[in-house]
Amino acid sequence: MEKRRRRRKMIPVPVTSMGDIAFLLIIFFMVCSRFAKDPGVVIEPPTTVEVDELDDYPLIVLIDKDSQIYFQGEPIASADMVEGEVRRFVEGKEDDKLRTVLFRCDRNVGKHVFEPVIEAIAQGGGRIAAVGDPSDK
Amino acid sequence: MTKRQKRRREIEMSLSSFSDIAFLLIIFFILATTLVQVSGVINEIPAGEQSQSNEDLESPTVKLEDDRMLFNEKQIEMPELRSRLADLKLHEKSEDEKVVLLEASGNVKYQSYFDVMASISAAGGVTAIMQEEEE
Q1: What CATH topology corresponds to B59-130?
Q2: ipTM metric
Q3: How far is the alpha carbon of A83 from chain B, nearest alpha carbon, in Å?
Q4: At residue B3, does pLDDT exceed 70?
Q5: How far is B4 from chain A (nearest CA, A)?
Q6: What are φ and ψ of residue A53, in 5° steps?
Q7: d(CA B12, CA B21)
């Protein structure tokens, strides 16, 4: 019996639309991403029972475990400078979101470091969003 | 004279590598992105006069010391503070009556300070920082 051989036709897969889909995904990631303003700053956040989800605020003040203060990711010398910087940013802004300062501080930092910074933010006209993690106790 | 017509050859661009580049970029974004939801508490700390004396104020006071906490001069623990603050029904009060004074002395860590601020905020109060009296 003669074996009948079928000749397979190569069907080309159109890949043109693949690039379009891929670029749409890239645009999605680029729009949704926000770059961290605190690269490399090591902070162990405090914990408490009741925390809310915080939005993305334009200002950020950090105090790391070595008591170094940062404003918008840049190290600054003292708490006194925070007041002026915050005032400069929030001046004329009445929207609560625009004058909210995200405050991240290491849980082991002492009162003599964080309290002047909190006061400086308040004196500068900022509203404090203190970052902390939820705990169960 | 016959006009010689040139037949243009259509040049097709190869787009197969285009999607490879795009997918490489996607992989980069996926790896570089960290999805973080920040949590915490919002406090509207009044920017008051620093010379204001303690005697003028009748607001409840939380005092943090190195290893203990006082609420209106009585020593309490954190769960009790939460219930005491809830009993005050600060949500229903006017802006001035919502104020809870927070005083820290010694070398209080941010952990306990944050815990108190969060409790005041959860109870509907407004934290006001009280400076330690200098001797």
Answers
A1: Nucleotidyltransferase; domain 5 (3.30.420)
A2: 0.74
A3: 11
A4: no
A5: 36
A6: -80, 130
A7: 19
